[in-house]
Amino acid sequence: MRHYALMQGACAMRISTDALFLGAWARTAHTAGQVLDVGTGTGILSLMLAQTYPSAMVTAIDIDDEAVRTAQDNFSRSPYSNRLTALSCDITAPELALPLRHYDLIVSNPPYYDGLQPATASLRQARHTEEGFAPHLLFRYLEPLVAPEPTLCLVTPVEALPLLRREAVLHRYNLKRLCGLYHHVGQPAIRLLTQWHRSDTPSAPCLSERLAIRTAQQRYTDEARDLLRPYLLDEYLD
């Protein structure tokens, strides 16, 4: 990374393209004061948001103790260590470890798995969608933790959108931004980046975006490079 080293250790959830693009894309129209990173893994999203919002306090949570240790180690090596905290916590029972109740920006690269079940126990735990957690349930689990007008940014499979929309309505969130993430131009979207906001004021129409990651020559597109440049060293943007 451009401003800090990032170690993966024995963390089950490795650094992913999904997390990089969510961290770079998850900007809001307001200044974030309290940020919650749900399912932090290595802590990459928390580090990127601490860089984006210089005054934000960032809390990173994960159910995997090894992930929490890895994130803590990465945080301690960063220039933002005084604003970053990693905690072992299950978002389905956050009162066990999270005393704070007014997060205004929440980000998550939720656990999901396409295809066969993961081979290792730690990866099965990290990707526990089949066992009671799914991206759309975040709206419900976050209810006691958020500020009056919170923003939630997610990266999910494309097929998760209908359930996200349905659950968002129940909790008074509006879809503010939607970005289809593509491997290459002309191919189907592989992921969706979504930004949801809850407010009592009328909502503006959703801003729809598209982002292709690679050119036909397997290089980053100009758009992808511009988005990641504040975070990645130039040698990784070729």
TrEMBL record:
Record's subcellular location: Cytoplasm
**MF GO annotations:** nucleic acid binding; tRNA (adenine-N6)-methyltransferase activity
EC number from the UniProt entry: 2.1.1.223
From the record, what ranges are coiled-coil? none
EC class name: transferase
State where it is primarily located: cytoplasm
* Domain (Methyltransferase small): residue spans on this chain: 30-118
An example of a Gene Ontology cellular component annotation for this protein is: cytoplasm
Origin superkingdom: Bacteria
Q: Which reaction does it catalyse?
A: adenosine(37) in tRNA1(Val) + S-adenosyl-L-methionine = N(6)-methyladenosine(37) in tRNA1(Val) + S-adenosyl-L-homocysteine + H(+)
Report the record's Gene Ontology biological process terms.
methylation; tRNA processing
Which terms are listed as keywords in the entry?
Cytoplasm, Methyltransferase, S-adenosyl-L-methionine, Transferase, tRNA processing
Q: What does this protein do?
A: Specifically methylates the adenine in position 37 of tRNA(1)(Val) (anticodon cmo5UAC).
PANTHER family listed in its UniProt record: TRNA1(VAL) (ADENINE(37)-N6)-METHYLTRANSFERASE (PTHR47739)
Q: What does the sequence similarity comment in the record state about its family? A: Belongs to the methyltransferase superfamily. tRNA (adenine-N(6)-)-methyltransferase family.
Please identify the protein, giving its name as recorded: tRNA1(Val) (adenine(37)-N6)-methyltransferase
Task: List the source organism.
Answer: Porphyromonas uenonis 60-3
